[in-house]
Design a protein that fits this description.
Elements: E1 22-24, E2 29-31, E3 35-44, E4 47-56, E5 64-65, E6 78-80, E7 82-86, E8 93-97, E9 105-107, E10 111-112
Parallel strand pairs: 5-10
Antiparallel strand pairs: 1-2, 3-4, 6-9, 7-8
């Protein structure tokens, strides 16, 4: 719809749920999380004109099973001061501190550790820094 300056109009649109999907590292597929959201109409991120609540129904994802399976560091749910880097020159992702002088944090939410007796981690040293 195109409006001349000073005029107003009403816009109706559909928002398919798949447009709200994100990549779920736990399942290796796109998913839509149930919950309360807000749809915003804005001129820019700093100039929000209207908002409307939106509730998405569905089943909450089960906790990520981490016992007896390999979980890559790059499959984190949240992070602080981390950069994604190549695991090898040929393939794969790994993580590294964004600044080696400061600690980095990886967060794995809703992790099921039932039956775990130990934890193993594969780490590498940066050959450039020794």
């Amino acid at each position: 719809m195109r409006l001349e300056p000073g005029h107003s109009g009403e816009v109706t649109f559909r928002l398919p749920s798949e447009r709200m999907a994100h990549w779920d590292v736990a399942t290796g597929a796109f998913t839509v999380d149930p919950g309360r959201y807000e749809v915003l109409l804005a001129r820019s991120a700093a100039d929000i004109v209207l908002s409307a609540p939106l509730t998405v129904s569905g089943t909450q994802a089960a906790p990520r099973a981490l016992v007896s399976r390999r979980t890559l560091a790059a499959d984190f749910d949240d992070y602080t001061d981390v950069s994604l880097v190549d695991a090898t020159r040929a393939r794969g992702d790994a993580v590294a501190p964004a600044d080696p002088a400061h600690p980095a944090t990886l967060l794995f939410r809703a992790a099921d550790l039932s039956g775990a007796a130990r934890f193993e981690a594969e780490v590498a040293r940066d050959r450039r820094t020794g």
